[in-house]
Sequence to fold (645 residues):
Amino acid sequence: MANKKQEKQKGSDYTAGQIQVLKGLEAVRKRPGMYIGSTSARGLHHLVYEVVDNSIDEAMAGHCSQVTVAVHDDNSVTVADDGRGIPVDIHPTEKVPGVELAMTTLHAGGKFDKSTYKVSGGLHGVGVSVVNALSEYLEVEIRRGGSEYRQRYERGIKAIELETVGKAKGSGTSVTFKPDHEIFDDLEYSFEVLSDRLRELAFLNKGLRIILEDERNGKVREEYRYEGGIAEYVEFLRGGRTALHDNVCYFDTSKPEAEIELALQYDQGFGEHTHTFVNNINTHEGGMHLTGLKAAMTRTINDYARRNKIFKKDESLSGEDVREGLTCILSVRVMEPQFEGQTKTKLGNSEVRGAVEAAVNEHLSIFLDENPKAAKVIIEKSLSASRAREAARKARDLARKKSALEGGVLPGKLADCSISDPSMCELYLVEGDSAGGSAKQGRDRGYQAILPLRGKILNVQRARIDRTLSNEEIRAMITAIGTGIRDEFDIEKARYHKILVMTDADVDGAHIRTLLLTFFFKEMRQLIDAGYVYIAQPPLYRVHKGKQDFYAYSEREREEYVKRLGGNGGDTKGVRIQRYKGLGEMNPDQLWKTTMDPETRTIHQVQFDSEISADRLFEELMGEEVEPRRKFIEKNAKYVKNLDV
Ligand code: 0RA
Fold:
């Protein structure tokens, strides 16, 4: 009935309600960044998460056991679940089917059901209507009450009324959409990026089966389902690091303020890998739940050690001490989360702090009591961390005194630039003294500084802070950059707003590049977040004939240039190809043209899709295990692909 009536409504016959809808979705199309963050690859992937979130909400409410995400040949995506199906009955006041409200009204997500935790309504949580507005088309299929229904939209505007397709068994929702090329710069979905997030969602929602199908070039299908939930996530994230105790400390408890789930395990490494989630959203900036967790861990471990007379008289452990070598996931579910902070990933609900603190106090102390062997190694580990930290503090004080005496001089190897405005200045970190020499000659000394780095810098992933700071190459880098590291880091003190890593295009170069990025990631994260860190890509080949000279950055480019100069395949017709094995093979002029001149160079800004995948990647590349490092080139190729240009 209602549907028939709407079919006739055209032009000036629109009702006030529909005009509102059109205005709402038009606003989304005008300023998509406001709703999904950006229209780059990140925003594109966000569309999938937005739809998946709705299915996850259905799963969290206990009505859905499986979610399938399929990427089709044309980069359209289907998200299907076996939930209750979006309601199709006519809404009493809005006079349209429930599904139509969901597809056309901003923030309609939580309208139906207020008593459950919602992913949607969280971080971006703008609802599926935004996906609808930003898609060339969107089709929704619903199985519910014995029938199958269907509706279609084009750029947010209804193209086919809700219709009954036929009979159906069971229930569920399937949404297929094709991101609009008028909106997005890049329409290509990344299997890696999708699989990382979907796997994470499967870990966070114990028992939920999530399937990812990629129908593009050769079929790929992955299935994620973890009965152990975040306890399995912790083992997964620990990867190759050697555990200090076999069983993961895990608990799941429900309090009035929040549902709290925690998993943790210690390893022989020196890093801390704690990740916190609120309603499945990674709270990168931490917040109240993290504060509660840290307080409880420090207190419980100290209490246990004191009670069991493990300390020598006035020993005690700091928060940092008890978190060395820790892999930890804290996942909380909160009814009405308040997200704060720059990226809205900091939990503001103060009542959650106490709830988490009490739960962790209780359950961690039970774990320690029940696992005295684990308790003993954890405390020994923390005590050794405490001693190392004390040694590092002494070393730092000494270094500070020394540098005060020297008047904070810049490293001798640095060829600084003459301009002093950091926003105009660039620092090239160059592999090797000989390439460093060429770079010094070839550069524009006005705004380009060169710091040659000799040999391999220390692997910071495996070293403690005291050893990191005793490495000369690293100290030179820190002084040249000017920001300091860790807690003392101050972005305002950056002496350059572009820091470019320039290494050879070979395995060693890739290794050094990864070492440097690991260092930035571990010790100067904000430098990456600020967008100051770049990779300079040197050419792989010079293709020339007579006076014509080209530089190729890939095999494909090389072939293109060879063709352009009239050569092909075996017959090169006087076209000469030089393969560059290292930066040192280029003269200063060539180095300038190919890798340093802003007009012609190729540089990639370093960005991470997700903190967790970056953390895992560095661990794989730089951690204890040898095997992953043998596969270095493969992995590294994948890594560079993940960089946003
Ligand atoms: C609100 C109410 C009901 C289902 C849903 C939302 C729902 C939405 C989506 C979006 C994707 N998959 C979904 N599955 C379910 C049903 C309420 C009822 O049946 O009583």
Q: What stands out?
A: The chain has four domains: 2-224, 230-388, 412-538+604-610, 541-603. The longest strand covers residues 157-167. The pocket of 0RA is lined by residues 54-55, 58, 81, 83-87, 112-113, 173 (CB under 6 Å). The CA atoms of residues 2 and 96 lie 7 Å apart.
